[in-house]
Amino acid sequence: MYEIVFWLCAMIVLGIMEAATVGLVCIWFAGGALAALIAAALGAPVWLQIVVFFVVSAGLLALFRPFARKFINSKGTATNVDANIGKTAVVIEPIDNLRGTGRVMIGSVDWTARSADGSVIEKDALVRVLRIEGVKVCVERVSAE
Q: Per-residue pLDDT tens for 8-30?
């Protein structure tokens, strides 16, 4: 009887810890505690309950965590500088990689720019930000579609 109460409490505490952290850490052990609770309810000895807890916890962790992490936070929100990647900008100074010139305006912010393919891009052209290298944006011309 005490084992059932113990595993029930462990499952609840681990579930609360998972809800508090949302890191997909404790949920696997809560599943192990549930399996051990079922084993205790069926009259399994304590040593077997502990083995069931560890085996089920490790199995759930190994099988489902990689799958779950793939879908959890897979679409993180870009912040700060990374939020500019993919945005369209206007060239305010011709971009010429050989001369080391080029500036674009992304929203209301002026950036030094370089062409991704090395081509010269004239003033007032629309470009797309591909990546950010230090304080420079690497851009490509937006096709006229």
A: 999 999 989 988 886 777 888 99
* Phi, psi angle pair for 46, to nearest 5°: -60, -45
Q: What is the DSSP string of 94-125?
A: EEETTTTEEEEEETTEEEEEEESS---B-TT-
Average confidence (pLDDT) over 28-43: 94
Q: What is the pTM (predicted TM-score) of this model?
A: 0.51
* Helix%, strand%, coil% for the chain, nearest 5: 45, 25, 30
Q: Could you give the CA distance from residue 14 to residue 36 in angstroms, rounded to a whole number?
A: 13
Residue 88 pairs in a beta bridge with 128
What 3-state DSSP class applies to 139?
strand
What span, in angstroms and rounded, lies between the C-alpha atoms of 24 and 72? 9
Note whether 96 and 60 are within 8 A (CB): no
Parallel/antiparallel/unpaired status of strands 136-141 and 126-133: antiparallel
- The tokens of 61 are what? 């962790």
Looking at residue 87, the DSSP 8-state letter turns out to be -
Going by the DSSP 8-state scheme, the letter that residue 22 receives in this structure is -
Distance CA 3, CA 122 (A): 75
